[in-house]
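Ticket #412: bound-state structure for alpha-D-galactopyranose.
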Amino acid sequence: MEARHHQVPTDEKALLEELSSAFRAHFGEKAARLFFAPSRINIIGEHIDYNGGNVFPCALTIGTYALAAPNEENALRLYSLNLDAENTATLPLNEEKAPDDWTGYVLGVFHALEQKGLKPVGLDIAVAGNIPNGSGLSSSASLELLCGVIAEALFEKTTDETLTRLDLVEAGVWCENEYLGVHTGIMDQYVIGFGKAGHAMRLDTAAKQHEYVPLELEAKGACILVLNTNKRRELKDSKYNERRAECATALKELNRLLREKGEAPREFLCDFSEDELNWLDGLDPVIAKRARHVITENARVQAMIDAFADSRLEDAGQILNDGHRSLRDDYEVTGPHLDAIVEAAQSAEGCYGARMTGAGFGGCAIALVRQDAVDAVIAHIKKIYAEKTDRTAECLISLAGDGAGERVVAAN
Ligand code: GLA
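RESOLUTION: The complex was predicted; output attached.
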Protein backbone atom coordinates (compact mmCIF):
# COMPACT_ATOMS: atom_id res chain seq x y z
CA MET A 1 0.00 0.00 0.00
CA GLU A 2 1.06 3.60 -0.41
CA ALA A 3 3.23 5.68 1.88
CA ARG A 4 1.95 6.66 5.29
CA HIS A 5 1.04 10.22 6.02
CA HIS A 6 0.27 9.88 9.68
CA GLN A 7 2.29 8.08 12.35
CA VAL A 8 -0.26 5.84 14.05
CA PRO A 9 0.77 4.76 17.59
CA THR A 10 1.92 1.14 17.86
CA ASP A 11 0.44 0.84 21.34
CA GLU A 12 -3.10 -0.56 21.06
CA LYS A 13 -4.73 1.69 23.66
CA ALA A 14 -3.30 4.87 22.15
CA LEU A 15 -4.18 3.68 18.64
CA LEU A 16 -7.79 3.03 19.62
CA GLU A 17 -8.12 6.45 21.21
CA GLU A 18 -6.89 8.11 18.03
CA LEU A 19 -9.07 5.92 15.86
CA SER A 20 -12.08 6.74 17.96
CA SER A 21 -11.60 10.49 17.77
CA ALA A 22 -10.90 10.26 14.02
CA PHE A 23 -14.15 8.31 13.59
CA ARG A 24 -16.10 11.00 15.48
CA ALA A 25 -14.41 13.82 13.59
CA HIS A 26 -15.29 12.29 10.21
CA PHE A 27 -18.63 10.64 10.79
CA GLY A 28 -20.07 12.30 13.89
CA GLU A 29 -20.98 11.09 17.35
CA LYS A 30 -22.50 7.59 17.11
CA ALA A 31 -21.98 4.09 18.44
CA ALA A 32 -19.59 2.05 16.29
CA ARG A 33 -18.44 -1.56 16.46
CA LEU A 34 -14.76 -2.44 16.71
CA PHE A 35 -13.08 -5.01 14.45
CA PHE A 36 -9.50 -6.28 14.20
CA ALA A 37 -7.47 -8.37 11.77
CA PRO A 38 -3.86 -9.36 12.53
CA SER A 39 -0.75 -9.35 10.38
CA ARG A 40 1.32 -12.52 10.01
CA ILE A 41 4.75 -14.05 9.74
CA ASN A 42 5.57 -17.27 7.98
CA ILE A 43 8.00 -19.39 10.01
CA ILE A 44 8.87 -21.64 7.06
CA GLY A 45 7.32 -22.77 3.75
CA GLU A 46 7.90 -19.80 1.44
CA HIS A 47 6.52 -19.49 -2.07
CA ILE A 48 4.92 -22.91 -1.91
CA ASP A 49 1.34 -21.94 -1.06
CA TYR A 50 0.65 -21.63 -4.79
CA ASN A 51 2.37 -24.96 -5.43
CA GLY A 52 0.15 -27.14 -3.22
CA GLY A 53 2.65 -27.22 -0.34
CA ASN A 54 2.35 -27.18 3.44
CA VAL A 55 3.27 -23.89 5.09
CA PHE A 56 3.88 -22.94 8.73
CA PRO A 57 2.69 -19.37 9.44
CA CYS A 58 1.27 -17.66 12.52
CA ALA A 59 -0.88 -14.57 13.05
CA LEU A 60 0.68 -11.72 15.07
CA THR A 61 -0.80 -9.43 17.71
CA ILE A 62 -0.23 -6.31 15.59
CA GLY A 63 -2.64 -5.63 12.74
CA THR A 64 -5.43 -3.42 11.43
CA TYR A 65 -8.38 -2.04 13.42
CA ALA A 66 -11.68 -0.57 12.25
CA LEU A 67 -14.62 1.22 13.79
CA ALA A 68 -17.74 0.75 11.68
CA ALA A 69 -21.35 1.95 11.94
CA PRO A 70 -24.35 2.10 9.58
CA ASN A 71 -25.14 5.44 7.87
CA GLU A 72 -28.19 6.79 6.04
CA GLU A 73 -26.18 7.82 2.98
CA ASN A 74 -26.47 4.65 0.89
CA ALA A 75 -22.70 4.86 0.51
CA LEU A 76 -19.54 3.37 1.98
CA ARG A 77 -17.62 6.22 3.56
CA LEU A 78 -14.08 5.06 4.21
CA TYR A 79 -11.40 6.82 6.22
CA SER A 80 -7.80 5.66 6.75
CA LEU A 81 -6.02 7.18 9.74
CA ASN A 82 -2.62 5.98 8.48
CA LEU A 83 -3.05 7.77 5.17
CA ASP A 84 -5.33 10.52 6.45
CA ALA A 85 -7.45 9.85 3.36
CA GLU A 86 -11.23 9.72 2.98
CA ASN A 87 -13.06 8.07 0.06
CA THR A 88 -16.70 7.44 -0.68
CA ALA A 89 -18.16 4.63 -2.78
CA THR A 90 -21.85 4.96 -3.58
CA LEU A 91 -24.09 1.88 -3.61
CA PRO A 92 -24.68 -0.32 -5.46
CA LEU A 93 -20.97 -0.89 -6.08
CA ASN A 94 -19.97 -0.98 -9.71
CA GLU A 95 -17.59 -3.75 -10.67
CA GLU A 96 -15.45 -1.74 -13.02
CA LYS A 97 -11.73 -1.18 -12.66
CA ALA A 98 -10.35 -1.44 -9.11
CA PRO A 99 -9.42 1.91 -7.55
CA ASP A 100 -5.66 2.37 -7.53
CA ASP A 101 -5.40 3.07 -3.80
CA TRP A 102 -6.09 1.37 -0.44
CA THR A 103 -9.84 1.28 -1.12
CA GLY A 104 -9.18 -1.33 -3.84
CA TYR A 105 -8.65 -3.90 -1.05
CA VAL A 106 -11.88 -2.85 0.65
CA LEU A 107 -14.10 -2.80 -2.43
CA GLY A 108 -12.57 -5.99 -3.86
CA VAL A 109 -13.56 -7.94 -0.75
CA PHE A 110 -17.03 -6.37 -0.68
CA HIS A 111 -17.55 -7.30 -4.35
CA ALA A 112 -16.49 -10.89 -3.67
CA LEU A 113 -18.79 -11.18 -0.65
CA GLU A 114 -21.72 -9.71 -2.54
CA GLN A 115 -21.43 -12.77 -4.81
CA LYS A 116 -21.65 -14.95 -1.68
CA GLY A 117 -24.86 -13.34 -0.45
CA LEU A 118 -23.77 -10.34 1.60
CA LYS A 119 -25.31 -7.18 0.18
CA PRO A 120 -23.41 -3.97 1.00
CA VAL A 121 -25.32 -1.38 3.05
CA GLY A 122 -24.36 2.21 3.86
CA LEU A 123 -21.50 2.17 6.38
CA ASP A 124 -19.01 4.58 7.89
CA ILE A 125 -15.68 2.85 8.40
CA ALA A 126 -12.51 4.28 9.94
CA VAL A 127 -9.39 2.14 9.73
CA ALA A 128 -6.00 2.29 11.48
CA GLY A 129 -3.11 -0.18 11.54
CA ASN A 130 0.10 -0.67 13.51
CA ILE A 131 1.87 -2.98 11.05
CA PRO A 132 5.21 -1.46 9.97
CA ASN A 133 4.61 0.01 6.54
CA GLY A 134 5.72 -1.93 3.44
CA SER A 135 7.16 -4.58 5.76
CA GLY A 136 5.80 -7.65 4.00
CA LEU A 137 3.86 -8.66 7.13
CA SER A 138 0.70 -8.72 5.02
CA SER A 139 -0.97 -5.40 5.67
CA SER A 140 -3.11 -5.98 2.55
CA ALA A 141 -4.45 -9.36 3.63
CA SER A 142 -5.03 -7.89 7.08
CA LEU A 143 -7.18 -5.12 5.56
CA GLU A 144 -8.99 -7.66 3.39
CA LEU A 145 -9.96 -9.91 6.29
CA LEU A 146 -10.88 -6.86 8.36
CA CYS A 147 -13.37 -5.94 5.63
CA GLY A 148 -14.54 -9.55 5.56
CA VAL A 149 -15.48 -9.55 9.24
CA ILE A 150 -17.11 -6.11 8.97
CA ALA A 151 -19.24 -7.29 6.04
CA GLU A 152 -20.14 -10.49 7.88
CA ALA A 153 -21.37 -8.47 10.87
CA LEU A 154 -23.06 -5.51 9.15
CA PHE A 155 -24.07 -6.27 5.54
CA GLU A 156 -27.50 -7.60 4.62
CA LYS A 157 -27.80 -11.37 4.18
CA THR A 158 -29.50 -12.27 0.91
CA THR A 159 -29.20 -16.06 1.19
CA ASP A 160 -29.83 -18.75 3.78
CA GLU A 161 -26.42 -20.32 3.13
CA THR A 162 -24.08 -19.93 6.11
CA LEU A 163 -21.06 -17.87 5.28
CA THR A 164 -17.96 -19.72 6.46
CA ARG A 165 -14.57 -18.45 7.57
CA LEU A 166 -13.11 -20.00 4.43
CA ASP A 167 -15.53 -17.86 2.38
CA LEU A 168 -14.00 -14.74 3.96
CA VAL A 169 -10.49 -16.04 3.27
CA GLU A 170 -11.37 -16.77 -0.35
CA ALA A 171 -12.94 -13.33 -0.77
CA GLY A 172 -9.55 -11.86 0.19
CA VAL A 173 -7.73 -14.11 -2.27
CA TRP A 174 -10.22 -13.23 -5.03
CA CYS A 175 -9.59 -9.55 -4.33
CA GLU A 176 -5.81 -10.00 -4.79
CA ASN A 177 -5.93 -12.40 -7.74
CA GLU A 178 -8.90 -11.29 -9.80
CA TYR A 179 -9.64 -7.75 -8.74
CA LEU A 180 -6.11 -6.41 -8.26
CA GLY A 181 -4.22 -8.85 -10.52
CA VAL A 182 -1.59 -9.98 -7.97
CA HIS A 183 -1.38 -13.77 -8.15
CA THR A 184 -0.71 -14.53 -4.50
CA GLY A 185 -1.50 -17.84 -2.81
CA ILE A 186 -3.91 -18.46 0.06
CA MET A 187 -1.49 -18.43 3.03
CA ASP A 188 -1.78 -14.83 4.24
CA GLN A 189 -5.56 -14.56 4.12
CA TYR A 190 -5.92 -18.04 5.62
CA VAL A 191 -3.70 -17.54 8.66
CA ILE A 192 -5.15 -14.06 9.25
CA GLY A 193 -8.61 -15.61 9.11
CA PHE A 194 -7.90 -18.68 11.23
CA GLY A 195 -4.97 -17.64 13.49
CA LYS A 196 -4.93 -18.70 17.15
CA ALA A 197 -3.03 -17.02 20.00
CA GLY A 198 0.10 -18.91 21.07
CA HIS A 199 -0.05 -21.15 18.00
CA ALA A 200 1.32 -21.42 14.51
CA MET A 201 -0.45 -23.65 11.99
CA ARG A 202 0.49 -26.34 9.55
CA LEU A 203 -1.60 -25.27 6.60
CA ASP A 204 -2.13 -27.70 3.75
CA THR A 205 -2.66 -25.27 0.90
CA ALA A 206 -3.88 -27.94 -1.52
CA ALA A 207 -6.62 -29.23 0.80
CA LYS A 208 -7.22 -25.79 2.39
CA GLN A 209 -7.08 -27.37 5.85
CA HIS A 210 -5.03 -26.54 8.89
CA GLU A 211 -3.84 -27.99 12.13
CA TYR A 212 -2.74 -25.74 15.02
CA VAL A 213 0.75 -26.25 16.39
CA PRO A 214 1.46 -24.80 19.87
CA LEU A 215 4.62 -22.69 19.75
CA GLU A 216 5.46 -22.79 23.49
CA LEU A 217 8.60 -20.81 22.79
CA GLU A 218 8.84 -19.31 26.26
CA ALA A 219 8.94 -22.78 27.79
CA LYS A 220 11.78 -23.56 25.40
CA GLY A 221 13.65 -20.41 26.51
CA ALA A 222 13.39 -18.90 23.03
CA CYS A 223 11.53 -16.33 21.00
CA ILE A 224 11.09 -15.29 17.38
CA LEU A 225 12.23 -11.82 16.41
CA VAL A 226 10.77 -9.96 13.45
CA LEU A 227 13.51 -7.99 11.71
CA ASN A 228 12.33 -5.16 9.48
CA THR A 229 14.84 -4.15 6.79
CA ASN A 230 12.93 -0.90 6.27
CA LYS A 231 13.29 -1.59 2.57
CA ARG A 232 9.76 -1.43 1.26
CA ARG A 233 8.26 -4.39 -0.49
CA GLU A 234 5.44 -4.11 -2.99
CA LEU A 235 4.03 -7.26 -4.53
CA LYS A 236 2.74 -5.27 -7.47
CA ASP A 237 6.21 -4.31 -8.63
CA SER A 238 7.95 -7.45 -7.43
CA LYS A 239 8.75 -10.50 -9.49
CA TYR A 240 6.02 -12.44 -7.71
CA ASN A 241 3.89 -13.16 -10.78
CA GLU A 242 7.03 -14.08 -12.74
CA ARG A 243 8.05 -16.69 -10.13
CA ARG A 244 4.56 -18.13 -10.20
CA ALA A 245 4.74 -18.50 -13.97
CA GLU A 246 8.15 -20.20 -13.69
CA CYS A 247 6.65 -22.74 -11.28
CA ALA A 248 3.85 -23.45 -13.75
CA THR A 249 6.48 -24.09 -16.45
CA ALA A 250 8.41 -26.43 -14.14
CA LEU A 251 5.26 -28.43 -13.40
CA LYS A 252 4.42 -28.70 -17.08
CA GLU A 253 7.91 -29.95 -17.89
CA LEU A 254 7.93 -32.51 -15.08
CA ASN A 255 4.52 -33.78 -16.13
CA ARG A 256 5.85 -34.18 -19.66
CA LEU A 257 8.60 -36.41 -18.27
CA LEU A 258 6.05 -38.40 -16.29
CA ARG A 259 3.90 -38.95 -19.36
CA GLU A 260 6.92 -40.12 -21.33
CA LYS A 261 7.42 -42.76 -18.63
CA GLY A 262 3.75 -43.73 -18.86
CA GLU A 263 2.93 -42.28 -15.44
CA ALA A 264 0.01 -40.02 -14.50
CA PRO A 265 0.64 -36.27 -14.33
CA ARG A 266 0.53 -34.58 -10.91
CA GLU A 267 -1.43 -31.53 -9.84
CA PHE A 268 1.20 -29.55 -7.95
CA LEU A 269 4.95 -29.02 -7.93
CA CYS A 270 4.89 -30.02 -4.24
CA ASP A 271 3.63 -33.48 -5.28
CA PHE A 272 7.26 -34.18 -6.25
CA SER A 273 9.60 -35.32 -3.46
CA GLU A 274 13.24 -34.71 -2.66
CA ASP A 275 13.99 -38.24 -3.94
CA GLU A 276 12.92 -37.07 -7.37
CA LEU A 277 15.13 -33.98 -7.50
CA ASN A 278 17.35 -35.62 -10.12
CA TRP A 279 14.45 -35.22 -12.57
CA LEU A 280 15.26 -31.55 -12.66
CA ASP A 281 18.59 -32.23 -14.39
CA GLY A 282 17.14 -32.08 -17.88
CA LEU A 283 15.20 -28.85 -17.32
CA ASP A 284 16.20 -25.31 -18.23
CA PRO A 285 18.64 -24.34 -15.39
CA VAL A 286 16.60 -21.38 -14.13
CA ILE A 287 13.35 -23.37 -14.10
CA ALA A 288 15.18 -26.24 -12.36
CA LYS A 289 16.42 -23.91 -9.60
CA ARG A 290 12.92 -22.58 -8.96
CA ALA A 291 11.54 -26.12 -8.72
CA ARG A 292 14.38 -27.23 -6.45
CA HIS A 293 13.52 -24.45 -4.01
CA VAL A 294 9.85 -25.45 -3.99
CA ILE A 295 10.47 -29.15 -3.46
CA THR A 296 13.15 -28.73 -0.77
CA GLU A 297 11.18 -25.99 1.01
CA ASN A 298 8.14 -28.24 1.28
CA ALA A 299 10.31 -30.86 3.01
CA ARG A 300 11.73 -28.22 5.38
CA VAL A 301 8.24 -27.45 6.73
CA GLN A 302 7.74 -30.89 8.24
CA ALA A 303 11.35 -30.95 9.44
CA MET A 304 10.75 -27.63 11.24
CA ILE A 305 7.51 -28.78 12.85
CA ASP A 306 9.30 -31.91 14.12
CA ALA A 307 12.26 -29.88 15.40
CA PHE A 308 9.91 -27.55 17.32
CA ALA A 309 7.98 -30.47 18.77
CA ASP A 310 11.20 -32.05 20.06
CA SER A 311 12.60 -28.67 21.24
CA ARG A 312 15.61 -29.15 18.93
CA LEU A 313 16.22 -25.43 18.49
CA GLU A 314 19.69 -25.77 16.93
CA ASP A 315 18.10 -27.90 14.21
CA ALA A 316 15.23 -25.46 13.80
CA GLY A 317 17.75 -22.64 13.34
CA GLN A 318 19.65 -24.64 10.74
CA ILE A 319 16.42 -25.20 8.80
CA LEU A 320 15.78 -21.45 8.79
CA ASN A 321 19.31 -20.83 7.48
CA ASP A 322 18.86 -23.47 4.77
CA GLY A 323 15.52 -21.92 3.80
CA HIS A 324 17.11 -18.51 3.38
CA ARG A 325 19.93 -19.90 1.26
CA SER A 326 17.40 -21.59 -0.99
CA LEU A 327 15.34 -18.41 -1.38
CA ARG A 328 18.51 -16.43 -2.10
CA ASP A 329 20.27 -18.78 -4.54
CA ASP A 330 17.53 -20.90 -6.12
CA TYR A 331 14.41 -18.77 -5.94
CA GLU A 332 16.26 -15.43 -6.09
CA VAL A 333 13.79 -13.35 -4.10
CA THR A 334 15.95 -11.95 -1.28
CA GLY A 335 18.04 -8.90 -2.31
CA PRO A 336 20.86 -7.06 -0.52
CA HIS A 337 18.84 -5.73 2.43
CA LEU A 338 17.28 -9.06 3.38
CA ASP A 339 20.61 -10.85 2.94
CA ALA A 340 22.37 -8.26 5.11
CA ILE A 341 19.85 -8.45 7.97
CA VAL A 342 19.77 -12.25 7.88
CA GLU A 343 23.58 -12.48 7.90
CA ALA A 344 23.72 -9.98 10.77
CA ALA A 345 21.31 -12.17 12.76
CA GLN A 346 23.08 -15.40 11.88
CA SER A 347 26.39 -14.00 13.15
CA ALA A 348 24.92 -13.02 16.55
CA GLU A 349 25.75 -15.09 19.64
CA GLY A 350 22.44 -16.55 20.87
CA CYS A 351 20.73 -16.66 17.46
CA TYR A 352 19.84 -20.19 16.30
CA GLY A 353 19.08 -19.17 12.72
CA ALA A 354 17.33 -16.63 10.51
CA ARG A 355 15.65 -16.21 7.15
CA MET A 356 13.50 -13.82 5.15
CA THR A 357 9.73 -14.17 5.64
CA GLY A 358 6.89 -13.50 3.19
CA ALA A 359 7.29 -12.71 -0.49
CA GLY A 360 10.82 -11.30 -0.24
CA PHE A 361 12.32 -8.46 -2.30
CA GLY A 362 12.54 -6.35 0.89
CA GLY A 363 10.27 -6.42 3.93
CA CYS A 364 11.03 -8.55 6.97
CA ALA A 365 13.14 -11.47 8.15
CA ILE A 366 12.67 -13.59 11.25
CA ALA A 367 15.24 -14.98 13.68
CA LEU A 368 14.95 -17.72 16.28
CA VAL A 369 16.76 -16.43 19.33
CA ARG A 370 17.66 -17.55 22.86
CA GLN A 371 15.41 -15.61 25.24
CA ASP A 372 18.26 -14.56 27.53
CA ALA A 373 20.25 -13.20 24.58
CA VAL A 374 17.49 -11.11 22.96
CA ASP A 375 18.84 -7.66 23.87
CA ALA A 376 22.39 -8.49 22.79
CA VAL A 377 21.15 -10.06 19.53
CA ILE A 378 19.08 -6.97 18.70
CA ALA A 379 22.01 -4.64 19.44
CA HIS A 380 24.29 -6.76 17.24
CA ILE A 381 21.83 -6.87 14.33
CA LYS A 382 21.23 -3.11 14.45
CA LYS A 383 24.95 -2.35 14.50
CA ILE A 384 25.96 -4.70 11.67
CA TYR A 385 22.95 -3.83 9.50
CA ALA A 386 23.65 -0.10 9.81
CA GLU A 387 27.29 -0.70 8.82
CA LYS A 388 26.37 -2.82 5.79
CA THR A 389 23.39 -0.87 4.40
CA ASP A 390 21.90 2.59 4.08
CA ARG A 391 19.04 1.83 6.53
CA THR A 392 18.32 1.07 10.17
CA ALA A 393 16.85 -2.23 11.31
CA GLU A 394 13.73 -2.39 13.44
CA CYS A 395 13.44 -5.49 15.65
CA LEU A 396 10.39 -6.68 17.55
CA ILE A 397 9.54 -9.81 19.47
CA SER A 398 6.76 -11.59 17.63
CA LEU A 399 3.74 -12.78 19.61
CA ALA A 400 1.34 -15.24 18.01
CA GLY A 401 -2.17 -13.73 18.11
CA ASP A 402 -5.76 -14.57 17.17
CA GLY A 403 -7.34 -14.32 13.74
CA ALA A 404 -9.71 -11.62 12.49
CA GLY A 405 -12.94 -10.81 14.31
CA GLU A 406 -15.04 -8.33 16.21
CA ARG A 407 -13.56 -6.97 19.42
CA VAL A 408 -16.11 -6.88 22.20
CA VAL A 409 -15.22 -3.56 23.79
CA ALA A 410 -16.11 -0.72 21.44
CA ALA A 411 -13.58 2.07 21.70
CA ASN A 412 -15.92 5.04 21.57
C1 GLA B 1 3.08 -13.41 -0.21
C2 GLA B 1 1.81 -14.06 -0.73
C3 GLA B 1 1.60 -15.45 -0.14
C4 GLA B 1 2.86 -16.31 -0.28
C5 GLA B 1 4.09 -15.54 0.18
C6 GLA B 1 5.37 -16.29 -0.11
O1 GLA B 1 2.99 -13.13 1.16
O2 GLA B 1 0.68 -13.25 -0.40
O3 GLA B 1 0.50 -16.06 -0.75
O4 GLA B 1 3.01 -16.78 -1.59
O5 GLA B 1 4.19 -14.26 -0.45
O6 GLA B 1 5.41 -17.48 0.61
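RESOLUTION NOTES: Residues 285-309 form the longest helix (25 residues).
TICKET STATUS: resolved
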